[in-house]
Amino acid sequence: MRPTHHDGLVRFGLDAADEAVTAVSLDCDPVVPGPRAFRRVGTEWVLELPAPPLGRLEYRLAVTRGEQTEVGPDPANPRRVATAFGDRSVLELPGYAPPWWLDAPVVDGRLEPMAVAGETADDVPVTVWSPTSLGADEPAPMLLVHDGPEYDLLAEVTRYSGALVAAGTLPPHRVALAHPVLRDAWYSGSPRYLRTVAEAGLDRIAAAHPVRGPVVVVGASLGGLTALLLALAAAPRVGGVLAQSGSFFQVRHDDSESGFRYFGRISRAVQGVLDARHAEHPLVVGMTCGALEENAANNRDMAAALRRAGHDVRYREVADLHNYTAWRDALDPTLSEVLRTLWCSEGTAG
């Protein structure tokens, strides 16, 4: 039975015809309130839980047969989403709507691979998306995206750019998709990685694809932390940042993360930003985070600290959780506002 929503409850059901099944439970983000274990009612396994204050819920079912438990999408629900950790089922709750730009016309674009060498042991691969209307030597604004391939596959960031350029909302610009070769090591406040991208990286990208105006950096989770640290390190050459669900770990909020190998380095870097009282080169900062996310408190603290230091901060909490669809859905208006502020004059895309 497909999940249903009625009278403030969400009801999940699974056909109980398979007599070998001994237990069924809901596998979803632990911040979602309510029970997880299904109960058998007649010919179904059934779970009811209070409808969460979300626009959509990604989940899987854990089905136990004897001593074996298989976790996978809900066979009764055809609506699924690809994630960095495999396919999940999706329940869209009343009021949810995907972003307008997913179905809007887009400009044609081309992809060009390159690599950046610097202080990191491995080169940083970068794939640059450009509108075909831009000449190879024509200067244009640049968006630099951490976790670039995943952001493009799962959050459709180049479609976002192509649609907003086609709509005249943004000027023609390029999107540099940075590949996370050693993600945890690089995206955890690594000085070598930050220097590689802020110095050799921006130089190398600009030499191959001339840049006009300030670069804007994007990232989510550990990539959101890295985007902000890079923007601070490379300002004013970098003028803006979008950090989505940033992993701004603090000792007082994140005991559950303290076992992460790079927790100490991250928390020290975060504390340095929180303690800053003056921005020599103020950034235009966009931040989004799920209101129920475990790290929402850290994002609120970071937004307040950046404002206090003099940065122009736009912080929004969204009715979703820590996933690429949430980050996709929040690109507009938050990233759009950052880009228009830095790249457009007098409210136009020219």
Q: Please, could you describe this protein's structure?
A:
- With about 350 residues, this protein is of the alpha/beta class.
- It has two domains: about 5-90, Sandwich (Immunoglobulin-like); about 100-345, 3-Layer(aba) Sandwich (Rossmann fold).
- Helix content is about 30%, strand content about 30%.
- The chain is built from nine helices and 17 strands.
- It has helices at about 150-155, 155-165, 185, 190-210, 220-235, 265-275, 295-310, 325-330, 330-345; strands spanning about 5, 10-15, 20-25, 40, 45-50, 55-65, 70, 80, 90, 110-115, 125-130, 140-145, 175-180, 215-220, 240-245, 285-290, 310-320.
- It has an eight-stranded mixed sheet, sandwiched between helices. Strands 3, 6, 7, 8 and 9 form a five-stranded antiparallel sheet that branches.
- Helix 5 (about 220-235) links the parallel strand 14 and strand 15.
- Residues about 345-350 have low confidence and may be disordered.
Tell me what portion of residues adopts beta-strand conformation: 25-35%
Mean pLDDT: 95
Radius of gyration: 22 Å
The secondary-structure class comes to alpha/beta
- CATH architecture assignment of the largest domain: 3-Layer(aba) Sandwich
Task: State the share of residues found in helices, binned by percent.
Answer: 25-40%
| Number of DSSP E strands | 17
| Net shape | globular
